[in-house]
Amino acid sequence: MKQIIFYFFSFFALFMALFLILTKNSIHAVLSLIFTFILTSIIWLILEAEFLAMTLILVYVGAVMVLFLFVVMMLDIEEVIKKSKFVKLWPFVIFIPMFLFLLTFYTYNHDSSSVTINSILIQHSVDYNNMRELGTLLYTRYLFSFEIAGLLLLVGIIAAISLTFRGKVGNSHYQNIRKQINVSSKNRLKLKN
């Protein structure tokens, strides 16, 4: 019964991830990613990784994805896509996913143990602590994969900065802390075009 539930939620998580990639509406894509995270956390609960499941819900769905949703709603993504120089960057668009796929394939095939769904769905004793097991595995056996995840987050940060950057630095508006501290009631509101 546990395997049927596992495959049921896995199928819907893959379906929502595929919808995330194929949809053209950016709001629908973010909502699809939220549902994918929720379904993945249910899968982690089935696999007795309660810490990861709750972290995924609280951190990613609760904070990061809400922030993504607000950013996507405020940015004019369609205008950025129209002005982008996608044709010039197509070699990178093909090379980077292929490199990440080969890196993942290499990491998966050079793992010393053979992991199947039957070996994962094992009932543990009452004194089992999955946080201790997670820390031990994360910083010993899966250290290379953990570093790859950090690299992917760095690429995501750089992509987010490059999407939101508009024009030259001289055209940007920055906060002037001295003006904010010395503000009076007469010049509290200043409209800019």
Regions with little confidence, pLDDT below 50 for 5+ residues: none
What does the average pLDDT come to?
A: 78
- Range of strand content: under 5%
The value of Rg in angstroms is 22 Å
Largest sheet: none
Give helix % range. 55-70%
Give the N-to-C terminal Cα separation. 62 Å
Helices and strands, in N-to-C order?
A: HHHHHHHHH
Number of domains: 2
Helix-strand category: mainly alpha
Number of strands: 0
Shape: extended
- Count of discrete alpha- or pi-helical segments spanning 4 or more residues: 9
Task: Describe the 3D structure.
The protein is mainly alpha-helical. The protein folds into 2 domains: 1-75, Four Helix Bundle (Hemerythrin (Met), subunit A) (Up-down Bundle); 84-165, no CATH class. Helices cover 69% and strands 0% of the residues. It has 9 helices and no strands. The protein has helices at 2-22, 26-46, 50-74, 77-83, 90-109, 117-120, 130-138, 143-164, 177-181. The termini are far apart. 6% of the residues are buried. The model has no long low-confidence stretch (mean pLDDT 78).
List keywords for this structure.
single chain; 193 residues; mainly alpha; Four Helix Bundle (Hemerythrin (Met), subunit A); extended
Strand-helix topology:
Layout lengths: L1 H21 L3 H21 L3 H25 L2 H7 L6 H20 L7 H4 L9 H9 L4 H22 L12 H5 L12
Please sum up the structure shown.
By secondary structure, the protein is mainly α.
